[in-house]
């Protein structure tokens, strides 16, 4: 059994869950007993930090009590997130927990990262006495941020189906794995009315904050872009980027090509990507300028609806009446502008 401080830093581990089950309070005690008021406060602090800073942040773990309160704050934060009931909020919280784990993992030895990876069902192995690790290529493709040049498979050593990594790179892959896993777990749970009642004030506060942020995102133009007039596909991609998610390459390509077609400049496009968890301006600028023709001889055209469906980035369940009449996202955007103009 690991130390309490480890449980507190990595509350998603099986040992942490076992500790809560064996030694933790009942749900009623956790929600009502004055002894756990600090855990409840930290749980809300995790959510505030995730929403504002994209990281649930560290707290003092100097004493056993510090560790216990930190451990118990994790399930509380998750339960409150489910009751807030908003996809954007869930994404921000999942990213906040994953980013927090990533920063801590950067300070851990390879042996610890390997143990965590195997517990999370990653197929990884340490390469002898070196600082290198190998990961099965399917796991690599599933979680690596391959939009960056150095992460692309063509720039990686692969032998026997395994891709070579270093410790820091494995920690980055674990960030993405945890973000996706926490998102999926939150989506699979329903709000508990007891939690909803106990945290009613904070739940309402978070819902109001999220609603205000969404209205600002939709109302505030970026350059000459009107976000509220975007087709559902691009609105989904943009929302995921603003929530801090790592959007697939084709989604990012489609958005950049679309914005370039609207004559949006590179700096305004970069602002939209700056919320990504590992945003690097120089690399993102290079990719944007490659797509828009700023650093290459070709400016790529915005893909049409058929290609968007082929890429798997057309949210068929969100198609509206206008979607069914047009064949290109640019046509959708243009029609929305004309509709608004005709109303005046």
How does the SSE layout of this entry go?
Elements: H1 4-9, H2 14-23, H3 27-32, H4 37-53, H5 64-84, H6 87-105, H7 110-119, E1 124-126, E2 132-136, H8 137-143, E3 158-159, E4 162-166, H9 167-187, H10 193-198, H11 200-219, H12 232-242, H13 249-261, H14 266-273, H15 281-292, H16 305-310, H17 329-343
Antiparallel strand pairs: 1-2, 2-4, 3-4
Helix pairs in contact: 4-5, 4-6, 5-11, 6-9, 14-15
Structure description:
The protein folds into three domains: 4-105 and 189-208, no CATH class; 110-178, no CATH class; 223-343, no CATH class. It is mostly helical and 344 residues long. A hairpin with a 5-residue loop joins strand 1 and strand 2 (132-136). It is built from 17 helices and four strands. Strands 1-2-4-3 form a four-stranded antiparallel beta sheet. It is globular. The termini are far apart. 60% of the residues lie in helices and 4% in strands.
Helix vs. strand class: mainly alpha
Low confidence ranges? none
The backbone outline, from C-alpha atoms, is globular
DSSP helix fraction:
55-70%
Provide the spatial order of strands within the biggest beta sheet: 1-2-4-3
> For the residues shown, what is the average pLDDT?
90
Tell me the distance between the termini.
68 Å
Q: Please report which band the strand proportion falls in: under 5%, 5-15%, 15-25%, 25-35%, 35-45% or over 45%.
A: under 5%
Query: Can you count the helices?
Result: 17
Into how many domains do the coordinates divide?
Answer: 3
Counted beta strands = 4
Gyration radius (Cα, Å) is 22 Å
Q: Biggest sheet, in brief?
A: 4 strands, antiparallel
Order of helices and strands: HHHHHHHEEHEEHHHHHHHHH
């Amino acid at each position: 059994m690991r130390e309490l401080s480890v449980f507190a830093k990595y509350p998603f581990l099986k040992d942490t869950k076992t500790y809560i089950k064996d030694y933790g309070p009942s749900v009623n005690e956790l929600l009502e007993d004055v002894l756990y008021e600090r855990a409840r406060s930290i749980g809300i602090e995790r959510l505030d930090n995730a929403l504002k800073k994209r990281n649930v942040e560290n707290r003092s773990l100097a004493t056993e009590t510090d560790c216990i309160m930190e451990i118990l704050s994790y399930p509380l934060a998750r339960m409150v997130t489910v009751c807030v009931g908003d996809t954007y909020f869930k994404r921000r919280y999942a990213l906040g927990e994953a980013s927090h784990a990533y920063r801590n993992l950067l300070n851990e030895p390879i042996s610890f990262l390997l143990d965590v990876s195997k517990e999370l069902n990653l197929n990884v192995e340490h390469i002898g006495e070196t600082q290198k690790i190998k990961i099965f290529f399917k796991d690599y493709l599933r979680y690596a941020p391959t939009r960056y040049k150095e992460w692309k498979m063509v720039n990686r050593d692969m032998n026997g189906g395994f891709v070579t990594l270093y410790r820091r790179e494995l920690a980055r892959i674990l960030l993405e794995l945890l973000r996706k896993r926490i998102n999926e777990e939150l989506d699979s749970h329903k709000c508990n009315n007891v939690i909803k009642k106990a945290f009613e004030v904070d739940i309402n506060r978070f819902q109001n904050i999220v609603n205000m942020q969404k209205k600002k995102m939709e109302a505030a133009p970026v350059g000459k872009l009107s976000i509220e007039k975007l087709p559902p596909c691009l609105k989904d991609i943009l929302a995921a980027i603003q929530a801090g998610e790592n959007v697939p390459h084709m989604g990012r390509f489609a958005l950049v090509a679309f914005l370039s077609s609207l004559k949006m400049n590179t700096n305004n496009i970069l602002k939209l990507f700056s919320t990504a968890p590992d945003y690097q301006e120089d690399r993102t600028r290079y990719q944007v300028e490659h797509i828009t023709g700023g650093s290459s001889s070709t400016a790529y055209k915005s893909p049409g609806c058929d290609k968007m469906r082929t890429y798997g980035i057309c949210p068929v369940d969100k198609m509206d009446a206008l979607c069914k009449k047009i064949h290109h996202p640019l046509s959708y955007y243009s029609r929305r502008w004309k509709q608004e103009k005709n109303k005046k």
